[in-house]
Design brief:
single chain, alpha/beta, seven-stranded mixed sheet, 10 helices, 7 strands
Length: 324
């Protein structure tokens, strides 16, 4: 239940947080069990963007260390996160790899889509990093393990951001052609060679969906590159006078609340790769609470009509503030 409530909030909040989300390839997305092999430049926010578009339940593989506290593990499980423990975190976690793979298999068998971040690590940059073997191993287990899902497709997925800090950005979400079981020509009995061929195919297909901008470019050159890449994901340069006025009102009203959460996020994350994820999560869960409380207070003081009007007006003004 909490998962579906969270998904509902995401679909309400994302259009306010983002300037525009453009999706390519969704119409040809693999039908059947699907493993979404994504790049990982935006931390948990990558899964938020993908999960807002995919219709079936989403299960996301994520770093296992955030599950070590029982309270955190409980809530992370509620939003269908699956822990991935690395051997570098301790020999006791090596055996958990098989558990992770099995959980992913069960999720796909039950009709869900599984997101795996094939690079293994998150870095705020515009390029595809070297792929780990986790995606290949999960695909192998799903295709050749017990009760194999031969019709599973591995979909190369690219999440491309205009910038990595805060709201008001364009995002391009791109789905490529799925890798199917017969695309791998190596005999599955040659396990390591099979994994290498799979990764070669996956890297080639993901490179077509993940944008690459050299880190050494100047800020102006990066902006020019991004504008060219977002040529098919345009937004109006300016609004009319009425829209701009509503945008100014929306930003003015919401600025104290936003600035407070922005400072808290910066303190909690030390402006790390988790910044965007934590800020969006705070806004997604706390903003509705703030709107309801303010509406109830105004309703009690002035009347229910005023409280109801405020309840609808605040999110609308927030949207205008984000877009104009």
């Amino acid at each position: 239940m909490f998962f579906y409530f969270s998904r509902f909030l995401v679909r309400l909040a994302l259009p306010i947080y983002l300037k525009k989300l453009c999706v390519k390839g969704f119409d040809k997305l693999h039908k059947g069990p699907v493993l979404l092999a994504s790049n990982h430049s935006g931390s948990f926010f990558d899964a938020v963007v993908i999960g807002a578009i995919i219709r079936q339940p989403i299960f996301t593989l994520t770093r296992g260390d955030v599950f070590k506290k029982k309270a955190a593990a409980f809530w992370l499980r509620q939003i269908k996160l699956i822990p991935v423990f690395r051997g570098s975190e301790g020999r006791q976690y090596v055996k958990n790899h098989d558990v992770t793979v099995q959980e992913g298999y069960e999720a796909m068998k039950g009709g869900g889509a599984v997101i795996i971040f094939s690079e293994g690590v998150c870095v705020n940059e515009w390029r595809l990093r070297p792929l780990g073997k986790g995606t290949a191993r999960m695909a192998y287990h799903t295709w050749y393990g017990d009760n194999a899902l031969k019709n599973m497709g591995v979909v190369p997925t690219g999440v491309n951001y205009e910038h990595f800090r805060g709201p008001g950005k364009r995002v391009s979400l791109r789905f490529g052609d799925a890798i199917l079981i017969n695309d791998i020509k190596t005999d599955p009995l040659e396990y390591e060679r099979w994994l290498r061929e799979f990764n070669e195919i996956l890297e080639r297909k993901m490179s077509a969906e993940v944008w690459s901008i050299p880190a050494e470019l100047s800020k102006e050159e990066k902006v020019a590159n991004l504008n060219a890449l977002f040529a098919d994901c345009t937004v109006p340069a300016t609004g009319n006078a009425f829209q701009n006025a509503l945008g100014w009102i929306g930003r003015t009203i919401h600025r104290p609340f936003y600035n407070f959460l922005e400072r808290k996020t910066a303190k909690l994350t030390a402006r790390s790769v988790f910044y965007d994820s934590v800020l969006f999560g705070m806004l997604m869960y706390l903003y509705p609470v703030a709107v309801v409380l303010l509406s109830l207070i105004i309703g009690a003081l002035v009347g229910w009509q005023a409280g109801l009007a405020l309840f609808f007006a605040l999110p609308i003004l927030a949207w205008f503030g984000s877009h104009y």
